[in-house]
Amino acid sequence: MIKKVAETKNSFGYVSMMSISDGEGNIHEEHAEEIEIISLNGVEGTIENITNGSYNAYRPFNVFWRSTEQEWNDLWAPAMWNPETGEWGWEKSDIDASDMPKEDDAAHFLFFNWILYSERAYETAIDIGDTERTSDIRITDEEVEEYITHFGMKTDEPYEIYSVGSTSVVTSLGKLSQSFNSADYSVTIELNTSSHQGSSDAFRYDKFTGKAKDSRMGFQSKNGKNSELMNDSSQSVWKYDTTDWNEDDYIDVEAYKTYETDALSFIVNKEGYYYDDLSEEQILKIYSENASWADVVLNEGK
Q1: How far apart are CA 25 and CA 5, in angstroms?
Q2: Could you give the residue ranges of the DSSP H alpha helices within 57-201?
Q3: Please, what's the b/e burial string for 149-173 (b: 16 or more CB within 10 A of its CB; e: otherwise)?
Q4: 3-state secondary structure of 198
Q5: How do the domains of the chain map onto residue ranges?
Q6: How far is CA 191 from CA 20, 53, 204, 208, 254, in A?
Q7: Alpha helix locations (H) across the chain?
Q8: CA of 302: how far to CAs of 57, 93, 103, 287, in Å?
Q9: Span 222-273, pLDDT tens digits
Q10: Residue 213: CA atoms inside 13 Å, Cβ hemisphere, count?
């Protein structure tokens, strides 16, 4: 989206705030000549304004586990971190390294739990008014090391972790993987996001080849469209609308959860842009009525 807006006169779009600015309203240098960030309801999109509630354009970043429902119920769900009791599920089950289907599954599952429930990930992510997550008992560094020891993870070379899904989450995941590695755990990771092509692609097998095809983690930058809640709220299992897909194209989606709240920045091409502030109503008109953003502004006498 940034590239398209930068290259197209009079264009308008929205992107993840951290992909276009430093969070304080300053556009990254490489985009400053072509792009302008516009405010919403007269409020500038900054981390400060997001956290104090005055800027309310944001969306969920969701992560889900890619496996069959049977495998999830038998293996992964019993091993999950429990944010209510503050303990690993495997501490009460018999699950260990011998149960892992693939050699790197333990690393994928550690990072999956870590971005959802660790103290470090919580401090790295931008969360807005998420009282449920605030009350979680979080994974400490010591408990990460307990996991590493329990599953006999290798410490001599990084684990390569593949993820698939929305392109919008890549910046966020980069920051989280850096935070993980800066913690000086006895294991490190190399997060490969090169196969991120779009939110809906994360639900499909036929979009990927190689290691990305068997990625355990999928990411969306929106809530699942036409999703159906298949289980109770403690372990939510979602299935994506697969009406137009062949049966073998799609995967089961387990433990669909929000790991971060992403702020949105509305951007315009500097050449020919008409106004530096829009209201929520104007934004909705542009996207719900498929209207030209210039028409919406000009018709209202801006």
Answers
A1: 18
A2: 69-71, 77-79, 105-117, 119-124, 131-134, 141-150, 170-182
A3: ebbebeeeeebebbbbbbbbbbbbb
A4: coil
A5: 2-58+264-299, 59-263
A6: 22, 32, 20, 17, 21
A7: 2-7, 17-20, 47-51, 69-71, 77-79, 105-117, 119-124, 131-134, 141-150, 170-182, 210-213, 280-288, 293-299
A8: 22, 63, 59, 19
A9: 765 433 333 333 333 334 444 554 555 566 667 788 888 778 888 888 887 6
A10: 8
Helix (H) or strand (E) holding 264: strand 253-269
- The whole-angstrom separation of Cα 125 and Cα 123 is 6
| pTM assigned to the model | 0.79
Given a contact cutoff of 8 angstroms between Cβ atoms, the answer to whether 97 and 152 are in contact is: yes
Under a CB-based contact definition with an 8 Å cutoff, are residues 266 and 278 in contact?
yes
What fold does the segment set 2-58+264-299 form as a domain? D-Maltodextrin-Binding Protein; domain 2 (3.40.190)
Report whether 145 contacts 153 (CB < 8 A): no
